């Protein structure tokens, strides 16, 4: 009798833990996609666009297995046993076309902006479930920028890592801690083997040298001390690790904590026009021409998030620009040092 009760309780527990996944944007491409032969990586992306347009595009083109929106809703796009076209030109450990051996999760948001705790919790649950399903250790959970690579072009004479910064925040240790991931890739296997060169030194520092621009947000969130690296608020949110128990008291009592940015605080809106750029103190550094490349104008900061390109009334941050899309006539805007 007691055993039966325990079994029933266990069933309820697992049903409650099961993840809710919406089929509202399930891709019409599913039937035409090959069943994937192996699953060796989980690749995290950032949509760099709002939810609605992202979901529609991902579904129409079958470009991810799942998409997690800001409110923590998880959408199934391509069935998880089929191939989704999410990684593009990619390589990991000498194997090209990462789509053939990975699961792709798009997260609505931006590669250099903190996400809400509900969204992080949803990503964490989904990733954990998939890791268990495919027996993948934490270092097999990577971001798109870990695996994307660029073909030789006018900026890089060799094949290079750093084609994009998609999903970059998921390589940062504070974010990984919030996601419950303890390991991350220690080196770039393809750079180490000289198959690729480093094409984006800033990204390389994030991926492999511990540069973490999210530490304040995920460490703090109003309550948990920075040193806690996000585990405390997340534990509370997920109801594990002792309920309302707070982190150990800091050594210095009675000192009012400095105000800390809440994760929900809206990120500053990017500039939308030349007038807007000027109002924010950006100056025109040059115009791209045949002789004057973006690198000549902006140097290593050509693809920095605070370098902007304008053309035909569009404003594009350096971090979102694809080297092959830089064209003659583009104006380059930067803040004077
Ligand atoms: Zn991506």
Describe the structure.
- It is a single chain.
- The protein has 337 residues and is an alpha/beta fold.
- The chain is 27% helix and 15% strand.
- The chain is built from 11 helices and 15 strands.
- The chain has a 6-stranded mixed beta sheet with strand order 1-4-3-7-2-8. A 4-stranded antiparallel beta sheet has the order 12-15-13-14.
- Strand 5 and strand 6 form a beta hairpin.
- The longest helix has 18 residues.
- The radius of gyration is 22 Å and the shape is globular.
- It starts with a helix and ends with a strand.
- 38% of the residues are buried.
- About 17% of the residues have low confidence.
- The site of zinc ion (ZN) has 4 residues, from loops.
Task: Compile the SSE list and pairings.
Blueprint: H1 2-17, E1 21-22, E2 41-46, H2 51-61, E3 66-68, E4 74-76, E5 91-92, E6 95-96, E7 102-107, H3 117-134, E8 141-143, H4 144-147, E9 149-150, E10 160-161, H5 173-178, H6 189-192, E11 197-198, H7 201-208, H8 215-219, H9 231-238, H10 274-279, E12 283-287, H11 294-298, E13 308-311, E14 314-317, E15 331-334
Parallel strand pairs: 1-4, 2-7, 2-8, 3-7, 10-11
Antiparallel strand pairs: 3-4, 5-6, 9-10, 12-15, 13-14, 13-15
This protein binds zinc ion.
Order of helices and strands: HEEHEEEEEHEHEEHHEHHHHEHEEE
Are any ligands bound, and if so which?
A: zinc ion
Reading side by side through the largest sheet, how are the strands ordered? 1-4-3-7-2-8
Q: Average pLDDT value?
A: 83
Tally of strands = 15
Number of helices: 11
Distance between the termini: 74 Å
Percentage of residues in DSSP E strands: 5-15%
Specify the structural class: alpha/beta
Radius of gyration using CA atoms only: 22 Å
* Shape assignment: globular
Low-confidence segments, ≥5 residues, pLDDT <50? 5-16, 220-233, 235-266
- Range of helix content: 25-40%
- Biggest β-sheet strands, sense, barrel: 6 strands, mixed
